[in-house]
Description:
The protein is mainly α. The protein is built from two helices and no strands. It has one domain. Helix 1 (2-26) runs antiparallel to helix 2.
Amino acid sequence: MILTENRVEMNTINVAKKKLEMHYAKGVKSELSIFEVANLMDLISNKAAVEQMERRSIFFGFSKN
């Protein structure tokens, strides 16, 4: 179950990164609003912050159940 959760999270992050790459490539012709871009950037940066916090946590090896 944990592997599935990690896979879904990584897919979400990868999709967000691809959307941002497409937004950057299109420039002013992008369909994304500034709020959507900010949401995608938050999603990516928060994932990095959570991973860093998990590495420091003493409960990193335990299940989330």
